[in-house]
Amino acid sequence: xxxxxxxxxxxxxxxxxxxxxxxxxxxxxxxxxxxxxxxxxxxxxxxxxxxxxxxxxxxxxxxxxxxxxxxxxxxxxxxxxxxxxxxxxxxxxxxxxxxxxxxxxxxxxxxxxxxxxxxxxxxxxxxxxxxxxxxxxxxxxxxxxxxxxxxxxxxxxxxxxxxxxxxxxxxxxxxxxxxxxxxxxxxxxxxxxxxxxxxxxxxxxxxxxxxxxxxxxxxxxxxxxxxxxxxxxxxxxxxxxxxxxxxxxxxxxxxxxxxxxxxxxxxxxxxxxxxxxxxxxxxxxxxxxxxxxxxxxxxxxxxxxxxxxxxxxxxxxxxxxxxxxxxxxxxxxxxxxxxxxxxxxxxxxxxxxxxxxxxxxxxxxxxxxxxxxxxxxxxxxxxxxxxxxxxxxxxxxxxxxxxxxxxxxxxxxxxxxxxxxxxxxxxxxxxxxxxxxxxxxxxxxxxxxxxxxxxxxxxxxxxxxxxxxxxxxxxxxxxxxxxxxxxxxx
Length: 490
Ligand code: ADP
Ligand code: MG
Ligand code: ZN
Hints:
Blueprint: E1 7-18, H1 57-69, E2 73-74, E3 81-84, E4 94-97, E5 104-113, E6 116-129, E7 133-137, E8 145-149, E9 156-162, H2 169-186, E10 198-208, E11 218-223, H3 226-245, E12 253-258, E13 263-269, E14 279-280, H4 291-299, H5 305-316, H6 320-326, H7 330-343, H8 346-363, H9 375-387, H10 392-405, H11 409-415, H12 424-437, H13 439-446, H14 451-463, H15 470-484
Parallel strand pairs: 11-12
Antiparallel strand pairs: 1-9, 1-10, 2-5, 3-4, 3-14, 5-6, 6-9, 7-8, 10-11, 12-13
Bound molecules: adenosine-5'-diphosphate, magnesium ion and zinc ion.
């Protein structure tokens, strides 16, 4: 007889965010992405012996800003440590990072999954330098040769480590989305996972449901999108379940996500902190951010996603669901807010941004920042719709053309004569034509089949090529249907 053991997944994420400073963390070299290899280097970031690091003040400011946004305590005094290991893209053979005294700790990130509020605690937030980048030339199998680009060496990274509070791959992805939104709102990171400005290592273990003890974890690396984080975790949970069910043991190790095969592969057995021989960085003094400076930074905190979401509900009267979708990214929230303000039609604006615009952009894999329709242009379309100049149906056609051609709504409506027909005389002519052509449905309606009215309104719309004002057409039809046969509305 087999008994099924129910397992619960326990997940903790380590997120590395590249900070959007102009210069690197310990030298004055540019931290810009995409320059020709090794053009942004100096003795400090090349790891020359005797070169001395100087901490970038803006890096600390960005990290404190993030810490405050996450509700962390900023440690009164923190320091930097050397993390020793060998890698060809790191000439010093150590990385300057933080160890037992991080810049900040004990915060949290709140978000919702399927309508349920969740909160994941932040364990710590610390600073470190990035390392260089290896470029493998020729085929890797043939191992022709590799080149090193040190432009990335010394680029500032902020690592945010969560507590193991996450319980499913969906929650992990949602936590990451929320964290990313916060960083982008703060302007401290561009949040681009594909380009590696936001990287995530996912730790996952299983335990019997109901147990409080933590199981042995595996750490998965190499995911470069929210979807791959979610998929890698789902795969890993399934793999660990199989191992445990077969009576095996999970080994603590680092695994790589292979996006092509959609599986994780063992990369190396787990390294422990003591393997790195951490020791205090002798070339940097301890860092003590003054309470005055921290307060100053606090006053620069912008409105964060959750606050903006609540304000959208309050100020624009849209449902919380809409507000959540629209505040998921800062550019999207800015876009919506611009349309809502320009059109004074906040609910209509929310529908059109969420359904039409996002629908089109998602289909094309485009971002809101590449929208071919500006907020002002969309607001102009909504104004035409609201005033009754065009019908809802025509508005969709006009939207489609605006999206394809970039032409403004007024021009499209004018060029193609799409103005809605609300003029009674003109509509009455069309109504008469429909009544004459549809004796069957007319008779049905009079016999009490009310749905026939909807059909007849549809025929009026068709005959007018979508330009008839539907409520007016309906009224006229009703008047005629009832007027012809007094007392026939039973
Ligand atoms: P390591 O020293 O292996 O990096 P840490 O204790 O620093 O481990 O934790 C790294 C990340 O792994 C954190 O996000 C933490 O929440 C998570 N974590 C720790 N233990 C477990 C576990 N047993 N299962 C899942 N996640 C865990
Ligand atoms: Mg780790
Ligand atoms: Zn440099």
